[in-house]
Amino acid sequence: MTQNYQHILALEFAVNEINKNPQILPNVTLGFQIYDSYMNPRWAFCSAMHLVSPKNIFIPNYKCEMQEDLIAIIEGLDSVSCQRIPNTLNIYKFPQLLYNSAPLRMDDTQTFPFYQMVPNEAHQFRGIQQLLLAFNWMWVGLLTAEDISLEWIEQVVVPEFAQNGICFAFTEIIYTAGIGDGAIQIWTRIMYCKIMSSTANVILFFGDSRYMLFLTGVLSMGISKDANENSKGKVWIFTAQTELKSYGNTLYMESHLEGFHGSIGTAAHSKEFTGFQEFIRSKSPLSTEGDFFIRDFWASAFHCVFPNSALLKLSGDNCTGEEKLEDLPEELFEKHITGHSYSIYNAVHAVAHALYDTYLFKSKHRRRMEGERERSVQPWHLHHFLKQLSFNNSAGDTVSLDQNGVIVAGFDVINWNAFPNQSFFRVKVGKIEPQAPTEEILTLNEDALVWPRGFHQLQPVSLCNDPCHPGFSKRKKEEKPFCCYDCIPCPEGKISDKDDMADCSQCKDDHYPNKAQNSCIPKVRTFLSYSEPLGMGLAIGGLSFSSITLVVLVTFIKHHNTPIVKANNRTLTYILLFSLLLCFLCPLFFIGQPQKVTCLLQQMTFGIIFSMAVSSVLAKTITAVLAFVATQPGSRIRKWVGKRLASSIVISCSIVQAAICLFWLLTSPPFPDADMHSVTGEIVLQCNETSSSMFYCVLSYMGFLAIASFTVAFFSRKLPDSFNEAKLITFSMLVFCSVWLSFVPTYLSVKGKYMVAVEIFSILASSAGLLGFIFYPKCYIIVLRPELNNREHLMRKNYGRSISVPRFQLPNPVN
């Protein structure tokens, strides 16, 4: 793979830079040997054994050449080799520096037998989580290599993702060991169908470049003439272990990279260091000595042939050596420094600085070592200084390792752009800082992102189902992953103002949900006011009826000596009319914004005044009945008939109601209050009665008086009309009782200011019933038929009836 040649150039550049700098290792020359792992654990182990063997002789653990001392090992192994070979080399205590990601394990704090020149890959998953959350990708697929710890995936990755609401549509493992060519063809077809048929538009891939080869083959299934042209493709997310490379024609099928267009990957942080581009431009097979890779690379990259080339399968024109590396496309050779090459460069400088510190330490303690045999620097001497390593490289970055031997650095976020001609280039679109707070781990330039072509540069959506819009909440689907859910409307009185709310929430007390139940609207403060039609109408009605009552009272006072006024106790008539006048004015306490005084007076004045009016009616009825009974010969009741009895009834009945109201005031007086919940969208300013039982006690007592009046009047309704009002009182009390019996269910069924309006209406209607049925006939006679308002007419009318009532002289007390 020609892209990997940059790793060699980075190694060579770093070594040359150190050897030319007398400030780093004076009188010491660094050299290097390169061994290939061939992406095979057995070959990698064989190469490792060559490191501890004499030059050109494979005899492990035998050393005979003092001038080529092995001081450190820089490794870039695949996952399988990375878990085995370092332990073998660790026997010799060689410092081992890893320039690609370490294998994932359950305990990411475990100390590995090497120094990691790239950040711990486990830390980048916090950044990947933030990346998924930033784009609201909650439904993703997962492909993982067979040598990645499945235990780590199941017990670390999946739960951490789940805590952030991310779940996996599928989890598939890529196997390579023991699979023949035919089985791989079948496997790639099955895998392609599974990936493309999934509703997840985002796929996470955990694996290194060795597995990337097979993944490229999977996507090659879809890049054909008969492929579904309407397919949007998938957004691939790669970890730092993976590098997108052009593999050419693989052993199994033709490689295609177009399916990875728009992919997002993480890579170890890199930065261009001074002089590297000039070093690349200076490379040529004609002018470079000692580079055993350049001829093979040159032939593969420029598709030409050198005489006596070992690459027998290549064909083409002869290589001139005058070709330029900068002319090669990115898919063959990346000119900009990659994360792995940057890590190799830092690894070489780390070894040089540790070696320098070792020599410096030995020179400072030379006196203490007098008498001892001078000993040369050994590989294990570097460990102490590598653990305390800190220096600035030529790119201006600080290179230091933590207590676990892992470099303190972040990751770059890479966006890959691939094209049908197998060319591609990468763009840095962000970075991941593992040491930053959770909300600041990921920094992303979304405007620079390029998405797969099927999405037409619109941000892809990867959800199990459409999101729940505001006004709805989520409900989990049975036997489905937790991020698959149904959307149900918010219950009445609750809202959800964001997508995918787990539950609806209540508005504040002074707000209420709008019709769509996706926001809260401030409630309107309301009360029964004089400015609105309802309040104005009730106020005018009360004043009108009070005016009529006043006219009736003046009329009765003006004609106080007429028989119709004298009948049935003139004093009680005046008390009743005055009580009705106050009853019609009583609603004025109920209209307008509630105040402390009005709240105290509302129910109290209503209860006492109405009790006075009803007790007056009761007294008139009882007095009339007793008057007729008293006229019978030998009756002993005559002594009870008079003003004293009537006044006693009115006063005693009113005192009982006043006592109930006084007890109410002393125990739990009403006060101004704001009802937030009764009426949707309104804050009802009202008087809080504090005690419903006391309110209904007032009504019940008033009802008791009304029923008593109605009962007495009903049984005495056939007495002569000229001497009593029993029939009129019967009809008036029937209206009165009907109004207040219908008041209770109506009052309980309405809310807000309409409760006040219902009570006012009941007050006016019942009072008007008393006024109309009792006093209208009398006013008619007094005003319009005065000729009928005389004693002779009344006596003649009543005694002309065929009823068994004895002749008698009406006693004076009744007048």
What does it look like?
The protein starts with a helix and ends in a 16-residue tail after the last helix. Helix 15 (570-585) packs antiparallel against helix 20 (753-784) and helix 16 runs parallel beside helix 18. The protein is rod-shaped, with a radius of gyration of 51 Å. Strand 9 and strand 10 form a beta hairpin. It has 4 domains: 2-117 and 337-365 and 376-397, Rossmann fold (3-Layer(aba) Sandwich); 122-269 and 411-455, Response regulator (Rossmann fold, 3-Layer(aba) Sandwich); 472-522, no CATH class; 533-814, Rhodopsin 7-helix transmembrane proteins (Rhopdopsin 7-helix transmembrane proteins), CATH 1.20.1070.10. By secondary structure, it is an alpha/beta fold. It has 21 helices and 22 strands. Mean pLDDT is 81; it is low at 106-110, 224-230, 249-254 and 799-815.
Distance between the termini: 129 Å
Strand order of the largest sheet: 5-4-6-7-8-11-12-13
- The amount of beta strand, in percent, is 5-15%
The CATH superfamily of the largest domain appears as Rhodopsin 7-helix transmembrane proteins
Spatial shape: rod-shaped
The chain-level structural class is: alpha/beta
- Please report the number of helical segments: 21
Q: Mean of the pLDDT scores?
A: 81
Secondary-structure blueprint:
Layout: H1 5-19, H2 41-51, E1 73-75, H3 79-82, H4 85-89, E2 96-98, E3 115-116, H5 121-134, E4 139-145, H6 150-163, E5 167-174, H7 181-197, E6 202-206, H8 209-220, E7 235-238, E8 264-268, H9 276-282, H10 294-302, H11 339-364, H12 382-386, E9 390-392, E10 398-400, E11 411-418, E12 424-432, E13 442-444, E14 472-476, E15 485-489, E16 494-495, E17 505-506, E18 511-513, E19 520-522, E20 524-526, H13 533-558, H14 563-566, H15 570-585, H16 596-630, H17 643-667, E21 671-675, E22 682-688, H18 692-715, H19 726-749, H20 753-784, H21 791-799
Parallel strand pairs: 1-2, 2-3, 4-5, 4-6, 6-7, 7-8, 20-22
Antiparallel strand pairs: 8-11, 9-10, 11-12, 12-13, 14-15, 16-17, 18-19, 21-22
Helix pairs in contact: 1-11, 7-8, 13-15, 13-20, 15-16, 15-20, 16-17, 16-18, 17-18, 18-19, 19-20
